[in-house]
Amino acid sequence: MRERAPLNLGLLYLFATGEGVTLGLLLQSYLTRGLGGVVIDAAATTAAITLAAGAYGTTTRRDLSGLGGILFVGLIGVIVASLLGIFIHLPLLHLGISLVAAVIFTGLLVYDFNRVANTAVASTGAAIMMTVAIYLDIYNLFLNLLTILGVFGGNDRE
């Protein structure tokens, strides 16, 4: 079992690097369009939401394990709506999807932080998977806030 830990960590590093490169290209497109303020606002908002969700998720005495199924169903709904959005080009639909997704990923942050706080002992693989879950929650929250603030912030600067 110890032999798999370096492989898992290597895959985690590879995954994070790929996500970072993708995010870098996206942020460059925002900066090229003069929307640097939107990027800063989205990052600050993501940080504030992550801190609040993490504080609540780790300190609450409530059992939030039932929340995972509800959030997963909501996430499937967002994915289906996003696939429809590829074919139906309505700006209001994309904004609505981003709003709902931001709420869902905030809920997933609370759920995942609660899951980490309630885990007494975790294997290396389980710890890596919890890390990836929280990373993806934060990453997707940021992307959705970037979309939301880009819609509102982009109109003010033009």
Question: Quick recap of the structure?
Answer:
The protein is mostly helical.
Describe the overall structure:
There is one protein chain. 85% of the residues lie in helices and 0% in strands. It has helices at 4-32, 36-59, 67-87, 91-117, 124-157. The chain is an all-alpha fold and 158 residues long. The longest helix is centred in the last third of the chain and has 34 residues, at 124-157. It contains 5 helices and no strands. The chain has one domain.
Which structural class do you get from the secondary structure elements? mainly alpha
Helix content: over 70%
- What overall geometry do the principal axes of the alpha carbons give? globular
Largest sheet: none
Poorly predicted regions are: none
Number of helices: 5
The averaged pLDDT comes out at 88
Amino- and carboxy-terminal Cα gap: 56 Å
Strand content: under 5%
The number of distinct structural domains comes to 1
Secondary structure elements and pairings:
Layout: H1 4-32, H2 36-59, H3 67-87, H4 91-117, H5 124-157
Helix pairs in contact: 1-5, 2-4, 2-5, 3-4, 4-5
Q: What are its keywords?
A:
single chain; about 160 residues
